[in-house]
## 1
Amino acid sequence: MLPSTLSAANGYEVTIERAVETKMRDGIVLRADIYSPKADGQFPVLLSRTPYDKRGGQHFGETAAGRGYVVIVQDVRGRYTSDGEWYPFKHESADGYDTIEWAATLPYSNGKVGMFGGSYVGATQMLAAIAHPPHLAGICPVVTASNYHDGWTYQGGAFEQWFDESWTAGLAEDTLNRRIRDNNNAMVSIEKLPLSSFPVQNPFPYAELAPYFFDWLAHPAYDDFWKQWSIEDHHGQITVPVFHMGAWYDIFLGGTLRNFAGLKVRAGNDAARHGQRLLVSVGGHAGDEPKIGELDFGPSSPVDTDEVMLAWYDNILRGVSNDARQVKPVRIFVMGKNLWRDEDDWPLARAKNIRYYLRSAGRAQSLRGDGTLSPLATTVKTESDEYTYDPADPARTRGGQLCCDHAHMPAGPFDQRAIEARSDVLVYTTPALQTDLEVTGPIAVELYVRSSALDTDFTAKLVDFWPNGFAQNLTDGILRMRYRNSQEKTELMEPGKVYKITIDLAATSNVFLAGHQLRLEISSSNFPRFDRNLNTGEEQAHATRMVKAVNTVVHDREHPSALILPIVPQ
């Protein structure tokens, strides 16, 4: 297609080339749209490789090209206009390397290539960076993961059912269209009689639409299938500065934070180790408006990630002296106070881990129970809370770190009282706070638990309980007991035996205002965000038999179950 030219209101006029082909090392042709300044000279390149249709990059392409960049937006292998077969993660390192090196040789390129984009488009950047292409100069992954097993497809051994199924269903649309296009040859059935039996479309197995989904189910443990693509296992191969952008209610928050922390220590050279930047906003996949879920975080909460990213690239690719060079390496949005704050590092060195111990007289079931949280451990010899988890009637997901179909499963903060009213949810709450209390950093729950089942789940959720009764979910986590000691090896439980476990709740930054209360929920389900544990110990992909589990959280003198919070001194 012949290039077209747009007039810019300011800056450069922009030339657009559509469906520009480049051949990968195995002969597969990928296609990209290129937005470039209509001017003599050579410019740095910003590259985005997407499975979501390159046409969606036009607005940014025009904006950035008008400011002196060559912007390339490419359909990844097997998606939309690009050839080949789509399989998540499989080809992104090699295809990313080849595309970056091709982009660096374009006549209007100055040889410096940066990458940008969010979610899976962030994965294409990380996977390209570990291949170490010589002309890659920086990446800016937004709301993406560090491990495509734990923190993408699974979490704590549980299948991320809502995300995995909704994301796969959305991806399958383009795959279906391609299959229909490739199978609409009427000649195949031209001699078929009677005429009324004409099949309209030649059938094909629907499993072909997403073979990777079934591979995910076939690999529930962290094995070589996953290790080949793990970013955190290959941090040492990344040798470029990285600007990580995440969000407190984002499904991939944990991965964003692990990538930042890991690359500071293990990146392949000093420039990369010292070139890490982190920005954490509120919503991410949960939304980018002031109102997310049922809460409005104020007019300053949204962040224009395109503008922030362009300022950073102006600095590292074009040598422009701007605020991106001057500010501290970490910027976070502090909820509760609803303000932005710059920090020297993550996690915050001044935050101190404080344990809040679970206490009750054995009746912590539901918000009507007697569960409390206290900085003082109990001296009672025997103390526990018991509930029955029935996988046929699981506790339901309400808001939280969700992706990707918000019409059916809205994300973000929602009132949790309907969940807390259930008898299979343990609720532990502090007294009303006398002064503001800031919690900023990684969150964990240490529990001593037992079950009547061979396998079950334990979930945990941190809640800000408001004086008006609103129970705001902040962050949560899950642990499938068969993976309590390792993501690589399953170990079923001995019914009735007490086990010490840790549930990772990722992180948050929230000021619990005076009058508010800290709350912790413990249960065994958060469905359909996570698949239900059927409690039988059978292989989860094909199991259908359910049994009830009597689950117990022990919190006596010898078993100090506790919520561990990073408290920032005021």
Note: The first helix runs from residue 58 to 66.
## 2
Amino acid sequence: MKIRNIIFSAALLLGALWVLPISTVLAWETDQSSSSYCSDQNSAVIGWSFTNTEPNTSGNSMDVIAKDNQSGTTSNKVTVPGGQTATGKLDTGKTTLGKGTITYTLTWTDGHSGVDTRTSSYDASDCTPPVQLPVFKANITCTVDDGKAIYKLIINQTSGVNATYNPANGTLLDNGTAIDVTATYIGEDEQKQTVTATALASEDCTPPIEVCRNGAVISIHPDERLDTDTEAPCPEVIPPTEILPVTGIGGIIAGMFGLTGVGTGIGSWFKSRRELESSLLK
């Protein structure tokens, strides 16, 4: 009986010694870490790293699947031999993430029985894109209406969020002097942000003036006025009286009828008659 017990105990001891190396192989020695960051597309991404710290021997290779417990995003299966590291990333498609964890599901690549899990944590990330403030141009245009310049502020926003402008687009101005235009945006957090640009006159819209130049009324820009120009309208010019080409009463009478040659003859006849009468009276 004693011999039988001794044989049985020896068998148990040998069995334990045979199982011991296998248990060592199935120890699941690992190291893992994870962190979150923002992609260029403003999406929260979780980067993970998994190291199989088992010796690099046959039968120690692990198959790993990483899953984000907050977004539910899961990686493809990755085979990690002993002593090696696998890395990956999980794009959650979210703009914000709170603090969270990654679960790694482990199986032996060669089909050894057993499944194990590991976890790693990461910090929160806020990938909300920053507000793009308005980008705009402002200028002052003018038109002339009934000899008066009409100035108007024109604002052209090319990008960015909608904003309130001061002065408002289309505001009529007293003149074309440069002014500052401010665009104000108030976000969801009630934070006020402003952008300022200077509006300049797009053209010279000084109304023309009328002056008298060389006896004629013309419209010119005030800067074009000459020292010899006078105020419009031009003074009235009286033409000189026409001088009759005949003399004497006959000439006057003939001039009245446009008979210049005849008038000269009549005037000469009257003159000869007066001379004759004077000589007879002597």
Note: The CA atoms of residues 109 and 228 lie 106 Å apart.
